[in-house]
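Before going further, learn to read the protein records used in this course. The integers have meaning only within a learned vocabulary of local backbone shapes. To see the layout at work, look at the sequence and tokens printed below.
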Amino acid sequence: MHLNTKKIAFAGVMLALTEVGIALGSVIETNTLFLLAAASFFVGIVIQEFGLKSGAGFLLAGILLAILLSPNKLYVVSYAFMGFYILIIETIWHFSGRASGWIRSRNFFWLMKYLVFNVLYIPGLIYFWSMLSEKKTAKGIMLMSAVFGQFILFVFDKTYEYAMGKIWKENRHKFGF
């Protein structure tokens, strides 16, 4: 019983920090992507500490609470995509650890990361450009946006790996884990 209480309390604090990050993204416009990415990293912390099901529940709770509290709903969508991406890559990492051969390799994991990202990003990019204008968007702008997204994924992913592998790993004992 004590462990469940601790789990709920910790997840509640992480959820509060998530919502603060999303709300601050609306206030501090120059750091919006950084704050949304940091908020989505809490999904990874909950997954690492309590498992995939808890992480999925945490993400859902974060999205629903952000819909109610956030002044800018577009930031909620961005947070949802980042959190969902983290949930999917953590799921892939979890199940690839049980596999053997090439599926266990780092190259396979990176390939899956780019595949998952592009399945989420490309349709969103097409929808975004179609909202901006009724006429067809120039192919060059779409291609540049797609390539820039790959760069952003690389930066996001390296930052996430550093946050989880270095910062959280070194500080998790302060929370009793």
Q: What stands out?
A: The two ends are 16 Å apart (CA to CA). The chain has a mean pLDDT of 85.
